Amino acid sequence: MQEMHGISHSSPQLNSCNQTRRDFLRGATVAAAGLTGTPLTMAQTPPEDPTAHLSQSPATMPTIMAVSAHPGDGVFTMGLAVAQRIHSGGRGVFLSLSLGEKGPPPGVSTEAYGAMNHEAATKAAKALGAEVVFLNLPDAEIPHCDESSFSVCDKIRQFRPDTIITHWSGSSHKDHRACNAIVRDAMFYAELPTIVRKETAHSVQHLFFAENYEDADGFLADTYLDVSAVYDKWSQACEAFAMWQGKTGFRYGDYYRSLAVMRGCLSQCQYAVSLECSDNVRNVKSL
Prior knowledge:
Layout: E1 2-4, E2 7-9, H1 21-27, E3 63-68, H2 71-87, E4 91-98, H3 110-128, E5 131-137, H4 146-159, E6 163-166, H5 174-190, E7 206-210, E8 223-226, H6 231-238, H7 252-266, E9 272-277, H8 279-282
Parallel strand pairs: 3-4, 3-6, 4-5, 6-7
Antiparallel strand pairs: 1-2, 7-9, 8-9
Helix pairs in contact: 2-3, 2-6, 3-6, 4-5
């Protein structure tokens, strides 16, 4: 097992052929410096002071940013990790590139559905204690270009997250693939002091990819986060979305609630989320 940026992280390629699946899952864990959850290891770490964050300003609090193509993606697939960070005394920000307006329920206009998603995401973020920002790029037509990347770069510099979660690149949805590429470019731009924007340069320490049923091609769950403490709050927050209730066809609520149960079974806790660690973090042992 390797120690990487405060993340105790294991990969099948790094383990012996005799290691069992259960041993691997016990080793695939997140420590406080990464996603700030309960480490899924046999040894327990001392609990953090729950009041330590009260004297911190938002600018200095450990911040996680969930960058998604659509509001539902952010709350459904990244919201548990965001909620866990907030529960542990940190700050959470949802950044949605579009309003997801092009997939409305029958009889609802795209304009009305965009407004519904905006309201739902705002309500869900408030319930989780997070902030939410929208770029209002066109759904189904999110462009991977410098204009989009600089817009995300500006939000990274504004909120200064130490951790970002976004879409995995192996997706059947073009907007999800575009979001992945936009985030990577935005992180590159954000950390360069020679690129002058309104805010000063900022380097993101950790990049993770969320588990999403549309982003399954090549996704490797290598990081597990115990989210049992925030599961109920997250599930209730998701109810704000019409699509969570199955009104757009797919049973999002059943799927993602069940996924948290399944990942919890594999990692020996009640509820968990799995993520994939980015290559640049996986291959770096220390800074």
